[in-house]
Amino acid sequence: MCKQNKGEIHNENKNNFKKDSSSNCYSSNSIWGYWSVTAWFNSGYKTTAADTKYGVKKNAYIKQCWVRIQEGSYDKKVWSEAFTRAEKKQGRASLTCGNNPFYVATATWGWKYN
């Protein structure tokens, strides 16, 4: 489930690794396998009110996205390449890590805007 938590620069979304699929974010899990989270965007696309369900601001151009996984002492954040809206490219950030069943894992993701 994408939950929106607005910040000054980006929207942060959290998932305690329930499956969530949208055009902007996805996370998956396996009890004994691994955790994975991915976020993506198209830099030349102006977001609309309908896109807010994915946790983005409406009427904005996304320039960069990020994903993060925290589990026990593991804490890693990965950023996509940044693009201007004139470049009209697709950015993607993805992170996968092994699962430790003794800790609760949390995935977060968000976007920075032009």
Can you characterise this structure?
The protein is mainly β and 114 residues long. The chain has one domain (3-113). Helix content is 0%, strand content 53%. It contains no helices and nine strands. The chain has strands at 3-6, 10-15, 20-21, 25-29, 34-42, 62-71, 74-79, 90-98, 105-113. The strands form two sheets. Strands 1-2-9-6-7 form a five-stranded antiparallel sheet, with no helix packed on it. A hairpin with a 3-residue loop joins strand 3 (20-21) and strand 4 (25-29). The chain is elongated, with a radius of gyration of 14 Å. It starts with a strand and ends with a strand. The model is unreliable at 1-12 and 16-23 (pLDDT under 50).
Question: What can be said about this structure in brief?
Answer:
The protein is mostly beta strands and 114 residues long. The protein has no helices and nine strands.
